[in-house]
Amino acid sequence: MFLALLKTIADEMTLDEINEEIDRLIGHRRLVWLLGAGASFASGLPLMDGLTARVVDKLRADKHTIKDVAGVEINTADFVHDVLCTIGGSCTVEQVLDHLADYLGMARRVAAKTVRTPLGEIRYDPIERSRLAILHVIRETIRYGYRHDTDPTKQHIGSPGSPIVDVRHHVKFVEALFGEVLAARFAASPVDIFTTNYDTLIEDALSLCSVPYADGFSGGAVAFWNPSAYLAKEMIRSRVYKLHGSVDWTATPANRTIVRRRIGDAYPEDAEDLLIYPQASKYDLARREPFDTLFQCFRDSIGGREGRVLVVCGYGFGDEHINHDIQAAMGRDGSDLTLLAFAKSPAGPLSGWLTQSFGERIYVLAEDGVYRATDPACRSGTAGPRDWWTFEGMTARLRNARTTIGARA
């Protein structure tokens, strides 16, 4: 068993030994990938704090407003900012949408269809318009790109006529992952790639590299949600699961059909509800399609009986559902799952997991070295901080692993 192999590794490892072990992990025939916002940062897309700032700035620039029950106009940007302040801490636009979902739920449950907010009594419809306005800014920002800076003069904002999103980093990742040396390792089954990102960079890169994949939809540029597509008998080399939805997914209110559409199309006519899943704490939404299927696929993919390696990059461990599923899979009796996390530091849930009984099956490639169990397995020492925790650094590491695996084969 793969677990038995890991148990033979000494507690103290040299840099050469840890690199060789990482090569073995990356070359494992059952890799599962989880990518987060950090994987798209160098491609011209913001992290969550930058996206939050962009939403507020754009709503204010557009002078988008709603009215309270007395007919007083409220600037939507002020409304969003007020929600941010109400939540407190380093809250994000995802948490704002979460808060608005609470408001909408409360408004639905009373006869007057209103809810009291710090800015006054507001009806259901204006709050829903605020939610849709936020989703529209998110879609525009993710589609065309935005480089955030606290200095407004240094911000770089993409537009339909001048997009700044760059797919090259994802193309390099796909080329490294599906190169001829590693390809043989994946012949038995497709590579599962899970992502929390709303962008389409991973799908675009797979297509540009001519890698056949399934994304849960059937059709062409306009497609419909069909989970059986993941079970297609024809040869596919990858399966893409977008756990938080996508900027090109919509749900038609008439029959709740879930459609992948071309951005900018005027049809379907009633497809105005951008289908993303920002409510990280809302278990009821996780039980709705397509998210019910997507999260179940994630649990199945990392919970298999055969030894598997979950490779995480760009993900800040901010989704309670995903974290719960990872911890459950790692801690399950007889688990053979190994976690290889590319992260700047072993913070958040990672720091706690390293101290658990399954900590020896966790490797964190951080800026200052590799962490395994309760202590760093190998510090970078005089080499200084490393960039292997970034998406670009991870891709380079993957490419180097290909060479090493090929040399051993």
Characterization of the model:
The protein has 409 residues and is of the alpha/beta class. The protein has two domains: 2-44 and 166-246 and 278-408, Rossmann fold; 48-157. It has 14 helices and 20 strands. The chain has helices spanning 2-7, 15-26, 48-61, 76-87, 93-108, 124-144, 168-177, 180-183, 201-208, 283-286, 291-302, 320-331, 349-353, 391-408, and strands at residues 31-35, 65-67, 73-75, 114-117, 120-123, 146-147, 156-157, 191-195, 213-214, 217-219, 223-225, 238-242, 245-251, 258-260, 273-276, 308-313, 337-342, 362-366, 369-372, 375-379. The strands form five sheets. It has a nine-stranded mixed β-sheet with strand order 9-12-8-1-16-17-18-19-20, sandwiched between helices. It has a five-stranded antiparallel β-sheet with strand order 10-11-14-13-15. Helix 13 links the parallel strand 17 (337-342) and strand 18. Helix 7 (168-177) packs across helix 9. The longest helix is centred in the first third of the chain and has 21 residues, at 124-144. The radius of gyration is 22 Å and the shape is globular. The two termini are 20 Å apart. Residues 1-11 and 405-409 have low confidence and may be disordered.
